[in-house]
Design brief:
521 residues, Porin, single chain, 16-stranded antiparallel β-barrel, two-stranded antiparallel sheet
Length: 521
């Protein structure tokens, strides 16, 4: 009865938000780029922030400048000149001139959520049945997340961008966009904390709060918690070129990064056996594991290539309406096909080569041998992104492959009371994702997503499961949105032999309802 009451209240709250949005008012968004060009968030965003529309992608591909080469025409905030233009003619006998933004290039985003969670009736492997609970059934987050938004340009060829919680920026980079044959955008170089273009899809610019599994899914039984989100630190070379007739075009990227654990480890509750694996795999003092930072001297590398058919050019159009009209700018009839490949090296607990040595696995930890170079892993896949009328259709196939140098062995009853002894070195997962988004009205956006996850481990395999996500976003103002979302999964409670399944945490297992408000200013 209590849960039915809460769900009813949740529904009423969402309906009230929709009715409130039926009476929209003119609004000017005020994050850094909105101030700079005196335009609304919807100029660059697909329906609402943070997802980019075709114009927003072209703006990004031009090094955070207006497409068409006429950025200075649109700037309403005059920059502060750092040296006379004539200095460029004296280089290298003078410092090259530059500029900084006139107004402070900073904005903020506040997030507040109310969440209702219907928890699974079972506990994690290795813990007492019925406890502990992973989280409360209902929760108000308050204003628990204030995100800093920074962005701007330093003259004609340099730009910068940063975003993330005040305590620690999740993204921060400087980008160089030189002129090549009189054009910009063909080549860029950026360094810093990167939302890399070699990821299958960005979890930072999604429409719903629920992230894409393919960007963070770890290989649990191998103890590899690598993930693309929230960032990778390194250097990226990337560029774009419009297609024939200025339509669509080519995008590419290659990069070298440290290769670090992602948000995947934060998706797990840490209860029972799962908590032991998390502790061992991320321990810093015990074995120099991933939690200690770099586990080896290797650098990971990646490559991405995509091609867009039809629609606005990936670098935009040669001329842009100086009014920056945002009417129906989510429409961009086009199809983009993207392929990506990521190669990395990380550590693993492997079977001890010494006579009488212990089994190596992330559960037993130090009983085996910690090898910082044992896991040569790959992440690769293909994504198709299509826009038609008021719809966006996305489909992706992502593949995770971990190949262990040596073997990993789980003893009988380890990580599953009824499990036999198993030895292996290959851990694979395939993830298939489909999503449709619909701008029903300029202020009302619907999202439906399905994610099918298929682990295929040689040892301590996990059951396949499918997760479903539904989201309704109401744009209350150009810089304010109300979100009502739900997600649920068919992940099984137990194996066929009755052993409780691995606890994948509330984000992957539990049915969750969420109502939230995001405000940018």
């Amino acid at each position: 009865m209590r849960k039915k009451f809460l769900l009813a209240g949740f529904s009423v709250f969402a309906i009230v938000g929709v009715l409130f949005a039926v009476f929209p008012q003119d609004s000017q968004a005020i994050p850094p780029f909105a101030r700079k060009y005196k335009t609304a968030c919807t100029t660059c965003h697909w329906g609402t922030f943070p997802k980019l529309n075709a114009f927003g992608n072209a703006f990004f591909n031009n090094g955070l400048r207006m497409p068409g080469g006429g950025d200075e025409v649109f700037i309403k905030d005059e920059p502060v000149e750092m040296g006379a233009t004539a200095w460029s003619k004296l280089f290298p006998k003078a410092v090259w001139p530059g500029e900084i933004p006139g107004l402070p290039p900073i904005g903020f985003k506040m997030v507040t959520n109310f969440t209702v969670t219907q928890e699974r009736p079972h506990s994690a492997r290795g813990s007492t049945p019925g406890s502990p609970e992973r989280r409360n059934d209902t929760e108000f987050s308050g204003i628990d997340d204030i995100e800093v938004l920074l962005g701007g340009t330093f003259g004609e060829t340099l730009s910068f961008f940063a975003a993330g919680p005040i305590s620690e920026l999740e993204r921060a980079h400087v980008n160089y966009t030189p002129f090549i044959f009189g054009e910009q955008g063909l080549l860029n170089v950026r360094v810093g904390k990167l939302d890399i273009r070699g990821a299958p899809i960005s979890n930072h610019i999604k429409m719903t709060d629920f992230g894409y599994i393919m960007s963070v899914m770890p290989q649990i039984s191998a103890g590899n918690f690598f993930g693309f989100h929230p960032n990778q630190q390194g250097i990226e070379f990337w560029g774009s070129k419009n297609g024939p007739g200025g339509k669509g075009g080519l995008e590419w990227a290659i990069g070298i990064v440290n290769g670090s654990t992602g948000d995947g480890e934060a998706w797990f509750s840490g209860a029972g056996d799962m908590g032991t694996i998390l502790g061992n795999a991320t321990a810093s003092a015990q074995n120099g594991g991933p939690g200690a930072g770099e586990t080896n001297n290797h650098k990971d590398w990646y490559a991405m290539v995509s091609y867009k058919l039809w629609g606005m050019g990936v670098l935009g159009e040669e001329s842009v309406d100086d009014s920056l009209v945002a009417k129906e700018n989510w429409q961009d009839n086009s199809v983009r096909v993207k392929g990506y490949y990521y190669s990395g090296v990380t550590g693993a607990f492997i079977d001890s080569p010494l006579p009488g040595g212990g089994f190596g696995n992330p559960f037993d930890g130090v009983t085996g041998t910690w090898d910082p170079d044992a896991n040569r892993f790959k992440r690769f896949g293909v994504l198709v992104d299509a826009y038609w009328w008021n719809f966006n259709f996305m489909a992706a196939a992502s593949f995770l492959e971990d190949d262990i140098s040596g073997t990993i062995t789980y003893g009988a009853g380890t990580f599953g009371d009824t499990k036999p002894q198993e030895t292996g070195s290959n851990f694979d997962t395939s993830i298939y994702t489909g999503e449709v988004q619909w701008v029903a009205l300029p202020w009302l956006i619907q999202t439906a997503r399905i994610e099918n996850v298929n682990p295929d481990y040689e040892v301590r395999d996990l059951k396949s499961f499918t997760k479903y996500t539904l989201d309704t976003t109401v744009v209350l103002r150009a810089n304010m949105k109300l979100k009502a979302a739900a997600n649920f999964s068919n992940y099984p409670d137990a194996d066929s032999d009755g052993t409780p399944e691995v606890d994948l945490g509330n984000r992957l297992m539990d049915t969750t309802y969420q109502l939230g408000l995001d405000v940018c200013f």
